[in-house]
Design brief:
With 111 residues, the protein is an alpha/beta fold. Helix content is 25%, strand content 17%. It has 4 helices and 5 strands, in the order βαβαβαβαβ. The two termini are 23 Å apart.
Length: 111
């Protein structure tokens, strides 16, 4: 069996169009949602009922993390063995390419 999303803490890094759509999709599940973005999104967060957090707070506290950022020098290799060593962390990254360290093999891979 799998796990339920209900009651889990969900972290979203990158609160653009996709990140905001994900917030709306998660609302019916009653998830606590932590978000991080380089742009001040406090007005949106207040309206949506989500919590602004640092990346480290997300890595430490989220049960599931979804990353929706462009590749920049700040996001390159953002996901690495240090960030995934935090408790309760599972990452779902869509379209982020080298935001994951090339030298890092996730513990959940078959390699």
């Amino acid at each position: 069996g799998g796990q339920q999303l209900s009651g889990k803490t969900f972290g979203i890094i990158g609160l653009g169009h996709i990140g905001k759509d994900l917030v709306e999709l998660l609302k019916p599940f009653g998830c606590r949602i932590l978000v991080n973005d380089i742009i001040d999104q406090s007005d949106y967060c207040d309206l949506a009922g989500v919590t602004i957090a640092t990346k480290d707070e997300i890595f430490c506290n989220a049960d599931v993390i979804s990353i929706h950022t462009p590749l920049t020098e700040k996001t390159k290799y953002m996901i690495n063995s240090e960030s995934l060593a935090k408790p309760k962390c599972f990452c779902s990254a869509s379209g982020v390419g080298p935001c994951t360290s090339e030298k890092f093999t996730p513990p959940f891979s078959n390699k």
